[in-house]
Amino acid sequence: MCVPEAADDGHGVTAGTWPTGLGTVLREWGRIGVTGFGGPPAHIALLRRLCVDGRGWLDAAEFEDAIAACNLLPGPASTELAIFCAWRVRGRGALSFGGGFVIIPLMQADAVGRHWMTNDQFLNAVALGQITPGPVVQTVSAVGYAASQLPGGLLAAVVAFAPSFAFVLGGGPR
Length: 174
Hints:
By secondary structure, the protein is mainly α. The protein has helices spanning about 20-35, 40-55, 60-70, 75-90, 105-115, 120-130, 140-170.
């Protein structure tokens, strides 16, 4: 666990200070996003190796509690855990609601119902979202591409991931 220089907030973080810089968070979380093949279990294992075993930014009990809490929330648990860990290490991250497998049927209804994709094409897009690093919500990029080619795919990806990046890049609470 990180030992702050002054009184902490009860979570190991002193108000206005963090155990590491934003550049480190961006680099390490980016590495996990690029190399984290295997979906949520792989991401959770890589986060534990980085934040608990490797750097000691979080203790094992806090990490396990965070996994339990993220599994109770709607949305992609490993993404929520990554955001929580980034918040604990650097400052303010955010929780995602309604993502991951929760939104697959909603995306399917739009993609197939609006005739952007066939049912088989949509299922292939979900499979692609599963085998690539990162959350299954990446499927939204394939749906956007089917709707409006490259601009649609890029717009869908930006809309899906911008809120998380905005909170992390915002630099934490002021």
